[in-house]
Amino acid sequence: MPADLDLAVNCGSSSIKFSLYSASSRKLVVSGSANNVQGDSPAQYEFTFQRDEGKENKKEREIDGKTTYEEIFTKILEDVTSDEVLGKEGKTRIRLVAHRIVHGGTADAPIVIRHGDKDEQATLDQMDAVSDFAPLHNHHAMLIVKECLEHLPEAYSVLCFDTLFHQTIPQYRRTYAISQPEHKTPVPLVKYGFHGLSYANIRDQMAEQLGKPKDQVNLVVAHLGSGGSCCLIRNGKSVQTTMGVTPLEGLPGGTRSGTLDPSLIFHHTPDCSTTVKWSGRDISKAEYVLNKESGFKALCGTNNFGTITSRAFPSEGDKEQPSNEDHMSSRLTYQLYLDHLLAFLSGYITDTLSSPEGRLDALVFSGGIGERSSRLRADVLARFRFVEELASSGGGLDVDANEKGKGRRRITREGSKVPAWVVETSEEDEMVRMAEEALQEGSAK
User: Fold this and answer.
1) Pairing mode, if any, of strands 420-422 and 362-366?
2) Which residues pair with 182 in a beta bridge?
3) pLDDT digits over 93-107, tens only?
4) Is 227 annotated as a binding residue?
5) Which strands make up the sheet holding 55-63, listed edge to edge?
6) Are residues 118 and 251 in the same domain?
7) Is 267 annotated as belonging to a binding site?
8) Is residue 180 part of a domain?
9) Where is substrate annotated to bind (predicted)?
10) Same structural domain for residues 233 and 381?
């Protein structure tokens, strides 16, 4: 049997998501994820697959000890390519692996590499250098790239960069008001932006939903998760986003500080320039504190936004009531996050409504927090009631759709000047599309 499957691998700071598609039909064959990779408790992963006339099967695994990314991915690969799942051909059926790489540096297209290519090592070295600018993600993703080159030597590995979608941001918005460094840096110190694969997928979904060409869609998107960002999309292209030269700028996250006074870290951590070891890599103590010891967890002891919301707004009927300390710290965290989010979204929506087109097709909520937190969505939309009142449009929040709906859906009533949607993004779909295009057109560099 010829190679007929495409594998998408999406590494997070403590997770690995993976999907296996039919190359001809784009039908999903296997889907799964691993959590708590290199965490304090056992790593777990699960996946579903279909065989025997579409019957769905589910497998779950738990691995004791602090398992490395390479070790758990090797186990995933063994399970996913086993006889039970793919038949005797196993690994030989995988034609390409699409890898989500958060930071692509100056790359202006996906990069295709294959085991034994003359430029294989040079590409790996180049991407390792860029990893300094996204230490929570790039390093892990590149470890998996190396595993795929070793264990799937006949397959193409295609590096799909989150930064590509934001290359249309105007230079005046990409430039920082700081002098050029005296030393050479691996990449220019400008705004790159991230979550680009998600934003591209959401744009495509909304273009289809609205029946418009991609290049005519105007969106403001909030991709909200443990790491979150916002993006302003005009005529199908990114023209502004909240993350910067690294994913640290912009919104606070589960363990990230988000934007703050640049000099704060020197007072908070006087030895911030010293080097610490994290996940087998040397990073500055400042990077570690701002990326791993900040955000929601620093404010209220948990990075779970659902827990934060339930503690901040407990119901009288709840069996377990939060302590006063948990209640107050969670309420503060929620208010801080909402305030930061509104600051960005207000600017983006104003920018869109005051543009020559003057049209906002949708305010989109996505990501784990964006899709699940009906309270946060309602609180955001309450900020824009004045727009509806000025327009006398009779729009506003559709409470039932916001509270009870599932999947891609509109959560404001017809006539809303700020039409809001919830969209479940699929970075893996976008990665495979991008990788297929790179191979077919030969445009990857």
Assistant:
1) parallel
2) none
3) 999 999 999 999 999
4) yes
5) 55-63, 43-51, 28-35, 15-22, 5-11, 94-101, 156-161, 111-113
6) no
7) no
8) no
9) 100
10) yes
Spatial distance between the Cα atoms of 345 and 283, rounded to a whole number of angstroms: 32
147-192 pLDDT, tens digit each: 999 999 999 999 999 999 999 999 999 999 999 999 999 999 999 9
Residues 38 and 112 in one domain: yes
Are both 302 and 407 inside the same structural domain? yes
Cα angle, residue 5 at apex, residues 429 and 427 outer, rounded to 5°: 15
Question: Does the annotation place 360 within a ligand binding site?
Answer: no
Residue 40 banded pLDDT, cuts 50, 70, 90: low
Backbone angles phi, psi at 418, to 5 degrees: -115, 80
Q: Which domain holds residue 17?
A: 5-167
pTM over 0.70: yes
Helical residues (DSSP H) of 230-320, grouped into ranges: 264-268, 285-292, 295-300, 305-312
- Per the CB < 8 A criterion, the answer to whether 143 and 69 are in contact is yes
Q: Check whether 58 is labelled as a binding-site residue.
A: no
CA distance 17 to 13: 11
Strand partners, 217: none
Distance CA 124, CA 369 (A): 34
Supply the residues annotated as catalytic: 162
51 is in an annotated binding site: no
Q: Is 195 annotated as a binding residue?
A: no
pLDDT at 7 over 70: yes
CB contact set of 72 (below 8 Å; sequence gap of 6+): 16, 34, 37, 43, 45, 63
CATH at residue 377: 3.30.420.40
**Residue 414 annotated as lining a ligand binding site:** no
Q: Do residues 134 and 246 share a domain?
A: no
